[in-house]
Design a protein that fits this description.
Length: 234
C-alpha cells in the first residue's frame, strides 16, 4: 500500500494472523527477478493477475510472478514461478491521487481462477499479504499473513473526520472504527476478497490501523472486466 497524498504509511498487515498454509490459493507474490518480494496480487483466471498500478517496477522482464507460495524464505515445492508477458496498467492511473490504482499482468499459465464483483457496505472481507507485521521493524514476514475487515461506506470514508473527499468512485474503504487491523505498504496489490470473490486490490492509506482512516482499495470494476473481455480472456 502506498501513502495517500502528503501522507506517510507504515508497512504491514496489522492485527492479522498466519493462515493455514496454502489455504489462500488465489494470492501471488510479485517479485523481482532476484526473488525480492515487491507486492501481492491475485489470480483472476489462468492467464491474468490483478494488482495495483503502483506495483509496476518497470518492464515486465524485471518481474516474476510466484503462485503457490506461503513462506518467502523456505522452498516448499509448491511454488510456481512464471514470467509475465505484458503489463496493462489502468490508462487513467493517477500517481498523485492514487485514483485507478489497478493493473493487469498477463502471464504464460496459471491454474487458479477467482471472480470479481461490486461490494456491499458492511460486508466482511479478507486481505492477505507479506507486508510488515510491526510498524518498527521494517521486516517482511517469512509467511503469508491475513486479516478480516468490514467494508466502510464511501460516505463515512469521505467525511471531514476521515479522508475528507479524497475517496473516488473507483475506491473501496475497509477497516474497523476502533482501528487495530489493516493492510499497508508491502501488501500493495494484494486482494480484498469477500466470500471467495476479489472486490479490490490494496492501494493506499494514511498511517495503518488508524480508527479514523480505513485502508483504501482500488475497486475491481467493469472497466477491468471489459479489458479482459477485449483480450479474449473472460
Amino acid at each position: 500500500m502506498t501513502p495517500g497524498p502528503s501522507n506517510r504509511c507504515q508497512e504491514r498487515i496489522v492485527g492479522g494472523y498466519a493462515p493455514v498454509p496454502h489455504s489462500i490459493r488465489y494470492i501471488v507474490s510479485i517479485q523481482t527477478t532476484e526473488r525480492q518480494h515487491v507486492c501481492g496480487g491475485s489470480l483472476i483466471n489462468k492467464y491474468w493477475v490483478i494488482t495495483a498500478a503502483h506495483c509496476n517496477i518497470g518492464h515486465y522482464s524485471m518481474m516474476m510472478i510466484v503462485a503457490g507460495d506461503y513462506s518467502l524464505t523456505i522452498y516448499e515445492g509448491t511454488e510456481q514461478e512464471i514470467l509475465p508477458q505484458h503489463l496493462v496498467p489502468h490508462p487513467e492511473y493517477n500517481k498523485t491521487t492514487n485514483n485507478n490504482d489497478i493493473m493487469l499482468i498477463k502471464v504464460r499459465k496459471l491454474l487458479v481462477r477467482s471472480v470479481f464483483l461490486s461490494v456491499p457496505e458492511g460486508r466482511m472481507c479478507r486481505v492477505s499479504g507479506w507486508g510488515y507485521t510491526s510498524p518498527n521493524t521494517g521486516l517482511i514476514p517469512a509467511t503469508l499473513r491475513t486479516v478480516k475487515l468490514p467494508i466502510v461506506s464511501a460516505r463515512n470514508c469521505n467525511s471531514s473526520e476521515s479522508f475528507d473527499g479524497g475517496i473516488t468512485d473507483n475506491m473501496i474503504c475497509a477497516g474497523y472504527s476502533t482501528g487495530g487491523k489493516d493492510a499497508c505498504k508491502g501488501d500493495s496489490g494484494g486482494p480484498l476478497v469477500c466470500e471467495g470473490r476479489v472486490y479490490g486490490v490494496v492501494s493506499w492509506g494514511k498511517g495503518c490501523a488508524d480508527a479514523q482512516f480505513p485502508g483504501v482499495y482500488t475497486a475491481v470494476d467493469a472497466l477491468m472486466q471489459a479489458e479482459l473481455a477485449a483480450n479474449g480472456q473472460m
